[in-house]
Amino acid sequence: MNERETLLEALHTLYARLDTLRHLEGQEMRRAESLEQYHRTLEDAYAAFGKIETVIDELGQELGYHHTRLDNEVEQDSSHEEKDA
């Protein structure tokens, strides 16, 4: 699975788990099976969120790398043009 697919799957999972959490009521937590489902849902949501954070951080690092790389190339080209003028 590539980075984009990982991100989209994690977003889908996070939205689905948040939707589940929105519909849970505190009274439901009195039953052991509901409490287990609640904990599994939370774990899945946080795991998906962690994947999203990781992919976003990697994309931010790649963006910063290309920004710096291209700025350096532009500066080098500008300094060569000034010397040639």
The pLDDT mean sits at 92
Count of discrete structural domains: 1
Number of strands: 0
Share of helical residues: over 70%
Rg, nearest Å: 23 Å
Shape: rod-shaped
Determine the number of helices (DSSP H or I, runs of at least 4 residues).
2
The ordered string of helix (H) and strand (E) elements is HH
**Can you tell me the residue ranges where pLDDT is under 50 for at least 5 consecutive residues?**
none
- The helix/strand class is mainly alpha
Largest sheet: number of strands, sense, barrel closure: none
Q: End-to-end span in angstroms? A: 51 Å
Share of residues in strands: under 5%
What features would you highlight for this structure?
rod-shaped, single chain, 85 residues
Characterise this structure.
It is a single chain. With 85 residues, the protein is mainly α. The chain has one domain. The chain has two helices and no strands. It has helices at residues 3-23, 32-84. Helix 1 runs antiparallel to helix 2 (32-84). It is rod-shaped, with a radius of gyration of 23 Å. The protein starts with a helix and ends with a helix. The model has no long low-confidence stretch (mean pLDDT 92).
